[in-house]
Write a structure and sequence with these properties.
This protein is about 50% helix and about 10% strand. It folds into 2 domains: about 260 residues, Rossmann fold (3-Layer(aba) Sandwich), CATH 3.40.50; about 80 residues, no CATH class. By secondary structure, it is α/β, with parallel strands linked by helices. The chain contains 15 helices and 7 strands.
Length: about 375
Amino acid sequence: MKFNRYFYQLQEDFRRKKRMVLFVGAGINATKGKHLLWEDLLRYLFDKAIRYLSIERSLDNEVLDKLKGAMNFSMTGKGNLQEQFELHEFINREFPLIVQASIVKKVLGNSYTSAIQDFFYGQCNKDLLARVFRDNYSFSREKNDGDNEYPFHTLYQLARVILLCPSIEGVVTYNYDNFLTEAIKILYEEREDYFSGAELDWLNRRENFCVHDISGSLYDRELGSNDLFVYHVHGFVPSPSQVIPSAGNEIVLSMEEFYENSREVYSWQTATQLHFFSHYTCLLAGMSLSDMTVQRMLHYASRCGNEDKIYYLHAGNARGDDSHARTYETLKNIKDTFHLENGVVPLFHKDGYVELYRWLGETVSDLVKNGFK
């Protein structure tokens, strides 16, 4: 089978219109040619911090080049690969990502948040997403049978699912950007170019549908019948054209920020996550489950109990049936057994993330066409 039996359980939950909340991580932004993952952000910020320190400590260019080569190590690189690899391993061992984030925050100071903003919106924005969606997924695109690239495919499919699935009542995101919100707006505003038949009929009935990024003081916004909230529980960094929310919008990235976040047991971020994990069917996408906040929430939820399921979407690497691919699949199966014992239902598609999210999009589309029967 291309996927496990739990996919059919999720199909049934969609059909029964179980109340759902979507939890998303950095993986939903993954696309060829862009570096938008959490590790990419830390690499960018740490590199910026090292350059600041190089001025303060008068590091020479040769040392800076070695540091840069080690942080961006690749077996296909140039120079002394053994030296680069050893330095790369030293950095990973002595400077894990969360420690890098703490150093970054101390070094960058007041420019910490603006550096995060530059990283994300220097690579992507609503105009870029609109162009990518139009060129690759709209009815008006120029079809190319030989084109097997799917830019921002996960983001596109999740935006479709959110719009078409009436039982998705909210989104919890661990991302700082607004790309999911913008993707939803693009598809809704230009729905006649992305939806047809029963899909379009349904969306046309969702009059005045609005999606809002919620964080800090914005959490007080009143939820209307046609509103969807995207809760940024690790803080929100909007595009440069918008004002960054201040009150209660603390960024959670460094070690100290994770510790402080863990102490705030009565914060809206903790209450929101725990409420959804305990009372809704949850769908986790674009996440590795290694985030300390997610682990903490899942632990709390397992103690409280939940009659509904917490599904975890992930996939194989689609490298074929060689021993290397099978080894990866074996490791993921071992981890899935661990997740299942801790109350998380793994949805594993062996043919990769494109097929996984294509399946999810087609499943919801078929249910809409059949009136969820």
